[in-house]
Amino acid sequence: MKSLIIDKLYKRVEERGVVCLGLDTAVEYIPEHVLEGKSIEEAIFQYNKEIIDATLDVVSCYKVQIAYYEALGLAGLLAYKRTLEYLREKDAIIISDIKRGDIMATATQYAKGHFSGDFEADFITLSPYMGMDSIEPYMPYMESGNKGVFVLVRTSNPGAEDIENIDTKDGSKVYKVVGDKLTKMGENVKGECGYSAIGGVIGCTHVEEGKEIRERYKDMFFLIPGYGAQGGKAEDVALYLRDGNGGVVNSSRAILLAYKKENKPEEFAACARREAIRMRDEIRTAVNNL
């Protein structure tokens, strides 16, 4: 069994904790002194760079949501490209949140576009609702050991009930059918840590299901949204982890905008670091109290 990118992420969680810092950077998040005299591209990159420098040793990875950059056109995409390049330069683990879900030739191009070139990331997010053939074009990159995916399984939004939680004819749930198929598909891309390079997006807001989901998908590494603003607590998150690993917990605005809570815009990066450490330690305590 060879070492995969999922092994690197597992080790980062061991070393630095479960926090996944979401660089969902809107222009309105950026303090005035950073914006002043700069282009949109330069201001976003400078803001991201200072956040990265301040948090690199206290978060396991960074999730960059492409929509925030696409919305700004070419200037935003240049900032996105530069942010990814800087993260790679720092040997940070990158999850590009792109949620692609097309099939065949189109999916092959998405894989090429986000696993190589200007927008290269270590992991990307995918939607499985056109079927497992929407995941297959990414497999060669995972089999090489260098890349991984996080596929939507049980998300944290209220609308998850509309499709994911529907009963199937055999008495299961749609999300369980998806999760089971992904588990089978991921058997050939398991790392030394025991987890597959095909991970799942599992929100922590369905607490009553937490233990069952973690038990059912022992080999699936989770990307866990829902903590903080969406109502997920540290003790909820702990249910989705295994011995404090097996997943990363995303936080975006709470970290990026921590300076507003402290009313210290000149210290936005230091405030982000303090919030990331607070979150990491809170979750560690919850895991230890299970």
Automatic annotation (TrEMBL):
Catalytic residue positions: 99
Enzymatic reactions: orotidine 5'-phosphate + H(+) = UMP + CO2
GO molecular function: orotidine-5'-phosphate decarboxylase activity
Keyword Lyase: yes
Alphabetical list of InterPro entries matching this protein: Aldolase_TIM, OMPdecase_type-2, OMPdeCOase_dom, RibuloseP-bd_barrel
Presence of the UniProt keyword Lyase in the record: yes
Keywords, alphabetical: Decarboxylase, Lyase, Pyrimidine biosynthesis
Pathway(s) of this molecule: Pyrimidine metabolism; UMP biosynthesis via de novo pathway; UMP from orotate: step 2/2
EC number: 4.1.1.23
Domain spans labelled Orotidine 5'-phosphate decarboxylase: 18-268
Gene3D superfamilies documented for this protein: Aldolase class I (3.20.20.70)
GO term, biological process aspect, one: 'de novo' pyrimidine nucleobase biosynthetic process
CDD domains, A to Z: OMP_decarboxylase_like
Recorded family membership: Belongs to the OMP decarboxylase family. Type 2 subfamily.
Designated name of the protein: Orotidine 5'-phosphate decarboxylase
